[in-house]
Amino acid sequence: MALRCLYQGSADELAEIIVQGHLVEELRRRFVAMHGAKPRESESASWGGSIPTVVDLLISAGLQDVQVLVELTAPICDVRMDIVLVGSERETGEICVVVVENKQWSQVRPVRGTQMVHVPNAPGRNPRLHPAVQADGYRQVLRDFVPMLRTAKVMSLVNLHNMPAAVLETIQGDSQELEGGAKRTQMYGQELEERERFAAMLTKTLSGEMALEHAHDLLSARVSPTDSLMTAVNKSVRGRSVFPLLDEQRIAVEYVKAQLAASRRGNKRVVLIVGGPGTGKSVIALELLAACSKDGLKVVHATGSRSFTRTLWEYAGEDTRARRIFRYFNSFETLRSKLDVLIADEAHRLRRQASGTGPSQVKQLIEAADVPVFLLDEHQVVRPGEDGTIQLIENAAKEMKHEVLRIDLRSQFRCGGDPEYIRWVEQLLGLVAGEPPRRWRPLENYELYVAPTPEAMEKFLNKRAAETNSSARIAAGFCWPWSFPRNGTLADNVRINGWNRPWNAKGDEWVGDKPPHTLWATHPGGRGQIGCIYTAQGFEYAWAGVIFGPDLVWRDGGWQADISQNRDRAVENALDFDFLVRNTYRVLATRGMRGTVLYSVDRTTNVMLAKLGARLLDYDGVPMNAPR
Question: pTM for this one?
């Protein structure tokens, strides 16, 4: 996993391209080659309008050798930074990195009480994340996830080259009460004095000495993947910041904070945060929990997942508040006092009806707090009776006369930070209308393999986990019986052509050194057992193995679902089994942070998977020389 950018070159080299009038054309060409799609017109316009203003300053400041990285992709997701300057620190000669966020805005006003701004007449959503907060988020993520930068000088700044200084003053850190690194992030406007101040800062900070070598070192540097979600739970309970949030994630947190003030003025809104796997929904939930706890607010995190909630209890450690803070959706029928904020994570697991004769479950949750927040992915509905959809929540809010504020998450923070893998899985399983399975295009930051046997899958995953000191799990469709432990051992229920492995523990108790099912995905003792949808959903691990059972096979150019092959009593009479089983395999196939191995027990299906172009494993679990 390495950093990548759209363009890398010295300021001198970039200046020559600009003089020739080829800047936008060249970046467009590179964008299509890297991403397989054309850039938005607004993005192209930004390149042409903003990049020359930075290059001109570098040249005038005598920093022509400083390396300019255009559109550097963040190390843990597909968010792209406008410009990153790389050179040597003046005082030490060590690597120095400056993140530059470009904005073409001329007018802006602060949104009081938040770290957001309103941009008049600008297309898209308003308000928007404060540019200093955005730039500082990029700085943080480089420091946190690129080990070679943890002791280096890494700065962030904002280039507002069209903005008058008088307007800029209204959103400066002191004026808007920004916090931490965002408050220290310098912003520069359009006037000559502002540009001179910008150039002076660059001259004082950067040198072109060793810039090319430093840039090469950075682009080839080791990148540590994001910490597992569960390692951050203890921090969130104690009100400490959990992760550096970027772009839409930070916007979501700021919107919720703003809605709390609005609700107390009698203008209650329901916040709906929608995103696919790996877009950071649960990260946002924990960051909200930490922020609210820090401010002394009454806040609760709720899910419909027993495994997820009990794991949160486990990772909260000895803190006695854990069972009050982390609850289930069905625990709000008799609420004694209203909450300030209710965070309904995994809201796709909502039930249309609550128990008893009271209001529906979604209405109970809306009523429970001044600011109810729902985070969901509609494609993760995997059980009959789960009906957590956008429409369900919007309809309930409308009936209760509350407005819904919806935030769509786009950036990927799992699966190597590349949305291409998620899209490929959805197309593979026929979950994108009109888009059949397509050949796999190898990605820099994510590995995909097809195994000839479950033994080969297991050997590969064990080796990768050992090499990278990370976690690996195998999960399967619910197509084998599942026994309770006998005489302190787990039965080898999953049997495939002589390869036999147990499901994870079925109950809530430890079986020797094997954890209860709620901890299978996160405890080291979970290795060696096979997980199912109920123990994998909501979790992540570095390397994922997915066994397709006979309940979903490929025949005559399409998928066929066979409910008779499924052993899950929860779906045995499901009329929509075909939809549920495809969603199930989508969830299982999107748990891995670094890579996934697929295998089907059905030979025809496995041959189809192998023909899609993913790299093949041999029978010893060794990747064959090159993708086919």
Answer: 0.63
Distance CA(270)–CA(376), nearest Å, equals: 13
Q: How is the beta sheet containing 116-118 ordered, strand by strand?
A: 109-111, 116-118, 128-129
Question: What DSSP letter does each residue of 587-610 carry, written as one string?
Answer: HHTT-EEEEEEEEESSHHHHHHHH
C-alpha distances in Å from residue 387, one per residue of 222, 304, 373, 383, 392: 42, 11, 17, 9, 7
Cβ count near 239 (within 10 Å): 16
- CA 130 from chain centre, in angstroms, equals 21
Return the residue matching tokens 């209203």.
338
Copy the structure tokens of residue 215: 């840039």
**Cβ count near 262 (within 10 Å):** 16
Quickly list H helices, 36-158.
Answer: 41-60, 131-145
At residue 435, what are phi and psi to the nearest 5 degrees?
-120, 105
Of 80, 78, 195, nearest in space to 134 by CA: 80
* Per-residue pLDDT, 627: 45
Query: What type of residue is 597?
Result: V
Q: Which helix (H) or strand (E) holds 339?
A: strand 339-344
For 128, half-sphere exposure in the C-beta direction (CA atoms, 13 angstrom radius) is 18
399, two tokens: 């009936």
Q: Residue 525: which region, alpha, beta or left (left: phi > 0; alpha: psi -120 to 50)?
A: alpha
Assess contact for 411 and 280: CB atoms under 8 A. yes
- Alpha-carbon span 97 to 83, nearest angstrom: 10
Cβ neighbors of 77 (< 8 A, separation 6 or more) are 246, 280, 411, 412, 413, 417
Let me know the angle formed at the C-alpha of 287 by 186 and 376, rounded to the nearest 5 degrees. Answer: 120
- Cα 311 from Cα 233, distance rounded (Å): 9
- Rounded to whole angstroms, the Cα distance separating 274 from 64 reads 44
84: exposed, middle or buried (C-beta count within 10 Å: 0-12, 13-18, 19+)? buried
pLDDT tens, residue by residue, 360-418 = 888 989 988 888 999 888 777 767 666 778 888 899 999 999 988 888 876 545 455 55
Give residues with Cβ within 8 angstroms of 575, minimum separation 6.
none
Mean pLDDT by groups of 10 residues along the chain of 628 residues: 86 96 95 85 93 96 97 79 96 94 94 85 79 90 86 95 95 78 92 96 95 94 64 57 65 76 77 78 79 81 77 64 73 71 85 62 89 84 73 91 83 57 92 90 87 98 91 96 89 96 88 88 91 87 95 96 93 88 94 93 97 95 73
Query: How large is the angle between the packed helices 248-264 and 281-294, nearest 10 degrees?
Result: 40
